[in-house]
Design goal:
By secondary structure, the protein is mostly helical. It folds into two domains: 105 residues, no CATH class; 136 residues, Helix Hairpins. A hairpin with a 2-residue loop joins β1 and β2. α1 crosses α6 and α2 runs antiparallel to α3. The radius of gyration is 40 Å and the shape is rod-shaped. The mean pLDDT is 91.
């Protein structure tokens, strides 16, 4: 394995700032995507929820339909029994038998009335559930349309940025190899601990870029000398002078333009 080339302090600072510019560009690309992937996932969950609700309601409709069929069978059985008891009444031998059969007929009449009442209630439930299904399907269609729109947006953004992001991530790894492991690890640690991902910042108007804490004039002179790596005592960020930052920025703009 080839030994890593030893860089002087200035070369390390330039490599670090190049790495920062590359990683910041990746951050920009991911910010462009923003919340879209999460929105798409949320909408997919919502659509799935509506589909499950429709499926459940349709199962409930089938159950009610089965209950109606069962009640209709009860009515048919009761009618058949009434007919049978009416025939039997013609051949009774006494009033007691006649009255007993009359009570059976009356009971079957009540069974028919009760079954018809239940059928009416079941039909009302079917009507109510059909309304809910209709409303749910309307909302489902609306959510599906919204999901398709968001998916198209996401696919367009991915198509525009995915290739560049892959190249940049490869470049990021490549630039890391230019820096000794200790420094690369320190950079990664700082970057992960700050909100905007800025681990290497230039001096801007006498202050540390990104944190805006004033840097003492003597420290600014040391930073401009590029003889040692200096960090901001407030934020822990690695500091570079504005001239070096401008030079590397122009270089990276050319690199990025070739990728897009």
């Amino acid at each position: 394995m080839a030994k890593k080339k030893e860089l002087n302090v200035e070369e390390r600072l330039r490599a670090l700032y190049d790495l920062q510019l590359i990683d910041s560009r990746v951050d920009e690309i991911r910010n462009v995507r923003g919340e879209l992937p999460l929105e798409v996932r949320d909408l997919e969950d919502e659509v799935q929820g509506f589909n499950l609700r429709v499926s459940k309601l349709e199962d409930e409709l089938q159950e009610i339909d089965n209950l109606i069929k069962a009640k209709k069978n009860v009515i048919e059985e009761s009618k058949s029994l009434i007919k049978k008891y009416n025939e039997q009444q013609k051949n009774v031998r006494n009033n007691r038998e006649f009255n007993s059969l009359s009570k059976e007929i009356e009971f079957q009449d009540l069974e028919i009335q009760l079954a018809e009442k239940h059928i009416k209630e079941f039909k009302a439930k079917i009507e109510q559930k059909n309304e809910i299904i209709s409303e749910t399907k309307e909302r489902l269609k609306e959510r599906e349309d919204h999901l398709n729109h968001k998916k198209n947006d996401l696919n367009d953004i991915l198509a525009e940025t995915e290739k560049e992001e892959k190249i940049l991530l490869k470049k990021s790894e490549e630039y890391k190899t230019k820096i000794e492991d200790r420094l690369a690890n320190a950079y990664s640690k700082i970057r992960s601990s700050v909100k905007n991902g800025l681990a290497v910042v230039p001096i801007e108007r006498g202050a540390s870029g990104g944190s805006y804490f004033t840097i003492p004039p003597q420290v600014q002179v040391e930073i401009a000398a590029r003889k040692k790596i200096i960090t901001d005592e407030h934020s822990g960020r690695i500091l570079v002078d504005s001239e070096l930052a401008d030079e590397q920025r122009k270089k990276m703009i050319k690199l990025f333009s070739k990728m897009s």
